[in-house]
Specification:
By secondary structure, the chain is an alpha+beta fold. Helices cover 36% and strands 21% of the residues. It has 13 helices and 16 strands. Strands 1, 9, 10, 11, 12, 13, 14, 15 and 16 form a 9-stranded mixed beta sheet that branches. It has a 7-stranded antiparallel beta sheet with strand order 4-3-2-8-5-6-7.
């Protein structure tokens, strides 16, 4: 068996290298698309030197300042220890989250199994799930395809989303099944589900708290909370709130939404931003002023306490990105957890803070060249 394990290890290493090269290529393509934003920022020679010395000391080599300038282009805040997206996606996430474990634990149909025992946490009810083509009802009993379709015949409003290989809100559909047909798309239940392949879940549609609906009622607005394990503790990165706009039912920034940072007391920062760098002091649709708007320090504290408990349930993975919300009963809602393909950029860009703050040096040393 020693030879088999050796071959397996070599193949795994090759797979990791290929994945890193592909992700690196993608990140370099993405940064070029934002060249107009990057070119708006000119660093002083002192700032350039400060960044270079910080990364040489902790990472072992200096990097392009393109990511620093991109993050600074939104808020105007300079920070020597912004964490470049290319290091996050090609080095840090693969280091902290072994791909096999991350892929399995990232399956969104497993959320109730992993976190249902956490007090005060609302996980959307599952009506139907499909794992590798096998249908199950909300109690995990197996169903035939015909039984699965019939279970949604008059389900009404619900959410259908892929559970693996998801991307920026593009693999989610809000449906209203009446008489075996989705009212919005006029597709039969079977036709809707076939679009989602062999891995998806059909869930309860969440009704968000008024404090979030006031900002934007067309989408369920979510908090992006990133947690990571370092020095035997779970830490929380700066938090961002994502808001839909233009009557869209998606809040994702890649899907046209806006994003804003949150202060420690639960108040919003002064400005929200689109991915293209647009600045908003009011929500573009509801006209609610962001500065001083209070989500509630108590709400923010409960969200933080909840993600810390959830991450403690997944010690196999060193960094996780949680999408959280609040429902009309005041409960903390888990929308999903991202274990692979996470992002470092928008929590930094909307807060004007480094992702890891005073721990940035230590995080760079974990992946030191």
């Amino acid at each position: 068996m020693g030879t088999v394990h050796t071959i397996e290890n070599h193949l795994t290493a090759i797979s990791r290298t290929i994945r890193r090269v592909l992700v690196s290529y993608s990140e370099r393509q993405n940064i070029q698309k934002k060249r107009k934003l990057i070119d708006k920022v000119s660093l002083t020679e002192t700032q350039k030197q400060e960044i270079k010395e910080f990364f040489r000391k902790n990472y072992g080599k200096s990097l392009s300042t393109a990511w620093h300038r991109l993050y600074q282009s939104y808020t105007g805040i300079y920070c020597k220890d912004y964490f470049p997206e290319i290091l996050f996606s090609t080095r840090l996430e693969p280091k902290l989250n072994p791909y096999r474990e991350a892929e399995i634990l990232g399956d969104k149909s497993f959320l109730p199994l992993l976190f249902s025992g956490i007090e005060g946490l609302h996980i959307p009810q599952t009506y139907l799930s499909c794992v590798k083509g096998i249908y199950r009802n909300g109690n995990n009993a197996l169903l035939s395809p015909a039984e699965a379709y019939m279970s949604l015949f008059d389900r009404g409003k619900c959410v259908v989303k892929k559970t693996i290989d998801t991307s920026s809100g593009r693999d989610v559909q809000i449906c209203n099944f009446v008489g075996g047909q989705d009212i919005g798309s006029s597709l039969a239940v079977r036709e809707v589900l076939e679009k989602f392949g062999n891995n998806f879940v059909v869930q309860e549609l969440i009704h968000q708290a008024d404090v979030l609906a006031t900002l934007n009622p067309s989408s369920v607005n979510t908090f992006r909370v990133i947690t990571y394990i370092l020095d035997d503790r779970i830490h929380i990165c700066p938090i961002a709130l994502r808001l839909g706009r233009s009557s869209s039912d998606r809040d994702n920034i890649h899907y046209g939404g806006v994003c804003i940072g949150i202060n420690a007391d639960g108040t919003l920062k002064k400005e929200a931003f689109s991915e293209q760098g647009e600045h908003f002091v009011f929500h573009p649709d509801t006209k609610v002023k962001f500065s001083g708007y209070n989500i509630g320090g108590g709400n923010l504290t409960r969200i933080k306490e909840t993600v810390l408990k959830m991450h403690a349930n997944l010690p196999y993975l060193g960094i996780l990105s949680w999408d959280m919300s609040l429902d009309t009963e005041g409960a903390v809602v888990l929308i999903e957890v991202n274990t692979t393909g996470q992002s470092a950029w928008f929590c930094q860009m909307v807060n004007g803070e480094s992702l890891f703050g005073e721990n940035t040096g230590k995080m760079l040393q974990l992946i030191r060249k």
